[in-house]
Amino acid sequence: MLDGRSVTARPGEVLIAAAERAGVFIPRFCYHPRMKPVGMCRMCLVEVASPRGPALQPSCFIPVTEGMEVVTTSERVKKAQDGVHEFLLINHPLDCPVCDKGGECPLQDQTLAYGPGESRFVEEKRHFEKPIALSNLVLLDRERCIQCGRCTRFAEEIAGEAQIDFAGRGERLEVAKFPTTSFSSYFSGNTVQICPVGALTATPYRFTARPWDLDQVESTCTTCALGCRVAVQSSANRLTRLLGIDVDPVNQSWLCDKGRYVFESVNGDEALVPGAAFAGEARPAGRGATVRLTQPLVRTHGELVPASWGEALGAAADGLRRVRAVGGPEAVAVLGGARLTNEGAYAWAKLAKGVIGTDSVDAQLGDGLPAELVLSLPRATIDEACRAKVLVTLTGDVREELPVLFLRVRQAVLSGATRLVELTYQTTSLTPYAAASLLMRSGDAPGLARLLVGGSAIASGAPFHPDGPPWSPAQLATARDLLAETPEGAGVVVLVGRPSLAEDASLVAEAVEVLANAWPAARFLPTLRRGNVHGALDMGFAPGLLPGRVSLEEGRAWFRRFWPTVPERTGRSGAAVLASLAGDLEDPDGASDQREAPKGPPIGALVLLGADPVGDFPDRQLAERALAAAEFVVVVGGHPSASLHHADVVLPAAVAHERPGTTTNVEGRVSRLGQKLVAPGLAWPDWMIAAELAASLGADLGFTSASAVLEEIGRVAPSYRGIDAAIEEGTHRDGVIVPLVGRGVERFEPIDPIATPGVESVERQGAPPRVGSARIGAWVVPVSVEGSGEGVPRLLSWPSYVAKRTSTRPTHVSPPDAYTLRLVSGRRLYDRGSAVLGSPSLVPLVPKAPARINPHDLDRFGIDDGDAVRVRSSRGSLVMRAEADPNVARGTVVIDFNLTVAVPDHRDAPGREALRRETTAEKDRRGTERPEDAQRELGASVLIDAMAPVTDIRLESL
Amino acid sequence: MSYFTPDRRAQAEELLSLYPKARSALVPLCHLAQEQDGWLRPEAMEEIAGLVGVTPAEVRGTATFYDMLHTEPVGTYLIAICTNIACLLDGAQELLEHAEELLGVRAGGTTEDGRFSLEEAECLADCDHAPCVQVNHRFVRAQTPEAFDQLVDDLVAGRVQETIPPHGTLCRVRRDGGLRVDRQQIAAERAAARAAKASRAAAADEAKPSSGGSS
């Protein structure tokens, strides 16, 4: 009984949550629906009937029981709320006019709604030094804190790293970091989001706007491929902040700091002007670091000069036509596409495959997995992964690549919902939670996979190594015991990604094939991390595929109905395109024969869709040679990159938050992207650029708006059939998983106004908090798709993949000798990509990469921790700092990808001398004016040989 | 490189082995570190964090909660004067003011030479000798300004080193004299308790299906 009416609660539900679902809002501060209750603020006191009469109880802390009688509106409850408010306000400065939270502050709102009318407090308020920087991103104003513990609980309970905790006690209780470290969590922004007062503020938002000036749309974050739902808020055509929205199957209200703050790179301050501004990757110093492409550019007499859209499209069309006339359609290649919306990707796929007729289209730049494999594997959802009997990971560090997935998996393991078996090259953030963590060396994955599914060590083909296998036999036994409980892989989910960019994707692919064949009932969650790479692959942005998860052969007849043409032959992958351009296809060590044999004429024209092979492709040397050799290069993108040096035509594109559309996440969940800004200058959305370029080539793509593209996707792309209607009618927050099967149920849960202050208040423009009404609806997928099912091609599936796969020859990895180490290069969250470098708040957080080596190996080579070493591969060499790291497997060197290397200490004379020589040599070799400290800009991509299955390196001490 | 001296490191490991959960050793380890330095240095808290498996911020959170753990430098002699009601009535305020004047620091401060810290304390449970004074948590019964002057004199001259060790040392008696630790016995008792629990759980499991069937 709640206030005299009968209410039903879920098992174990706390009173405050049950009441909220019944439409009774109980004021609260410390309670957060995604964290364990603590009963700290006492704001939620209600009267609960007891044998000794009604008693005041904190409703966030007591579970509902059968027959409970609760009163939330009595005089006594009101008096208790008044009292709690009065105490909270005694030490609160009431500086609302200068506080960022003013206007969206639960303390302000609830004082108005539930607090005492006036203050009796006449004494002096407390004063503290303010603000205290907990980190680069989070500031603390202690006097505003009401000690609810949301931030400290988040850090400990959700993020799993209590870098902040309460210090002191009583009236001196305050949130504090440790003096010698900072609150350097990847998830620190969430503490600001859930702070119910203005105590925690974020540096990018502090003093920039008031809630009532803001306007917001709901959208999906495309910084990584997880698809966290966000509220995007802006003021005067500038983004001001992003807040996480609670979507149960995906992000559960959390965001990572990268996703939260990279919006700064969208707010371009300076339009790119020709000439001086883009000499190299150097960005103009001064205000912000953000430069946007805002104007079409055409290379004239060796210089990129501004042009009109008409001129630029004409030049692009002429160039493409010229190349096609000489080499046929297959001489054109389109790389990139993972930053596009689904609509943009479909439009470009239609232009490339359906108009130009080339199949050499790839959204993955050497950092992905074979698209056909990814799309053929039985797909798991995030929820399924989090309740798998056994969750196997064969991917990079999840916290670095898909940070919020780390939070989900961590929670799942801690709650006992799943058990984790990890296959990894180094200790990761998930290792402490793993039931078994199997350390391996680059090249071991297929062999270890065979061992895991019950094969013998000899048959595993694991390469011989002088130190023996790096995994511990006990851990392997544990893993096999766990997996023995899941016959045929029933209940097993495998996270599949790329643990290292310094090895060929075929190694992970082979391991995955072993697992998928041994466990027919297992499901797979691909952890490819680029923004909308899953949407791009679904739109056919890979060789041998067509939109809607069908193969080129299977879908050819179907797509001939809708497209002017369909490619004749399977094209080249991104790596093969670059290798072909660079003339590297004849590979001396015979590794290339496992790849699709190169066919057709050489590539002449390259279209880069938001892709930067020079900065992003694992093998920088190959990419540079390829771009230099390309006859004609069109760059489409929002930010300048190193690849602009080689551009003949530059077409400025709208980026995230500047165009509407849809995106697809790792699990195949399609959700809507909101448009919040008008794109700067003359930038267009990608679908429009594709349509206009097609028109310049004399073809009509047939769309006039993004929704028209979505309508065509829903009609034409087999796995997306009905998506337009489902998106239109069905989904608000959660999105829908493709392919749509039968009926879907929409869960429209209200946003708890106190859980995420700032979303609801901006929506309601400062009205007092109230509870939205829950709506459970249902939508039905329309069956009447054009052609009524006839001739619709079959989707890729595991049986079809296995049937088609002819070559089962395992990748040959030659065993290393005692003097070589194998390079592992994984990703870090804050890298030197254009999004992070364009976000001034994040730039200071980008680390330098040392060469991390097992202390045993360092000893063996006679190198000390911190020494300067020369790291040499067949591709190049770097002078850098060596770091002893017991978390790295023996025989392995880890140099994180897409970071600049940690240069040796300047006081270290031999290191400095070697660096000087190296830099001079580099300069001579290039024959261009590189900056004096050229090496400072270099990273692991100098070493990686994309044409070899693994990259072996040698260390030289200096 | 361990922050603790080798013998304290050994003591630390012994302390850790006493508890089923390493985290339980947090406060004893803080005392151990304080014995080494007189206060808890950040490096000490970092090492303790590593030993018990929490973050340094959590160690600091716990340490700042307790009055006897200091995260700021403290003098060799920490003089505490109680100002609760019984002591107040017997002149505690005057004694505290005298002490502030004599030492040249306010309550809560430390003299420049790092020898004395003065603190105003809550009830120290020696009300029959009010106003109650402690040096390094040992009762000294310096109830008058004159007695206090004598106390400071004695401390400066090193005449009471026998009874009052430098701040941080809780006790100088070897623990194994009184509280003898038989590791094997502890281990055996724990194993027996675990076995008993397991057998109870097994019995409960067996009982379950039959009761389900009967109902």
Task: Describe this entry's structure for a reader.
The complex is a heterodimer of chains A (958) and B (215). In chain A, 27% of the residues lie in helices and 17% in strands. Chain A folds into four domains: 188 residues, Ubiquitin-like (UB roll), CATH 3.10.20.740; 244 residues, Rossmann fold; 155 residues, 3-Layer(aba) Sandwich (Dimethylsulfoxide Reductase, domain 2), CATH 3.40.228; 130 residues, Barwin-like endoglucanases. About 7% of the residues of chain A have low confidence. In chain A, strands 15-14-27-26-25-16-17 form a seven-stranded mixed beta sheet. A six-stranded mixed β-barrel of chain A has the order 33-37-34-36-35-38. Chain A contains 28 helices and 38 strands. By secondary structure, chain A is of the alpha/beta class. In chain A, helix 7 packs across helix 21, helix 13 runs parallel beside helix 15 and helix 18 packs across helix 20. Chain B is of the alpha+beta class. Among the domains of chain B are: 56 residues, Orthogonal Bundle (Arc Repressor Mutant, subunit A); 81 residues, Glutaredoxin. Chain B has nine helices and four strands; from the N terminus they run ααααβααβββααα. The radius of gyration of chain B is 24 Å and the shape is elongated. The N and C termini of chain B lie far apart (64 Å). The C terminus of chain B is likely disordered.
Total number of helices of chain A: 28
- Can you list the strand order of the major beta sheet of chain B? 2-1-3-4
> How many separate structural domains of chain A?
4
Strand content of chain A: 15-25%
CATH top level assignment of the largest domain in chain A: Alpha Beta
* Class from secondary-structure proportions of chain B: alpha+beta
Give unreliable regions of chain A as ranges.
Answer: 271-289, 587-598, 766-788, 926-934
Query: On the 0-100 scale, what is the average pLDDT of chain A?
Result: 85
* Rg calc of chain B: 24 Å
Give the overall form of chain A.
globular
- Overall pLDDT score of chain B: 87
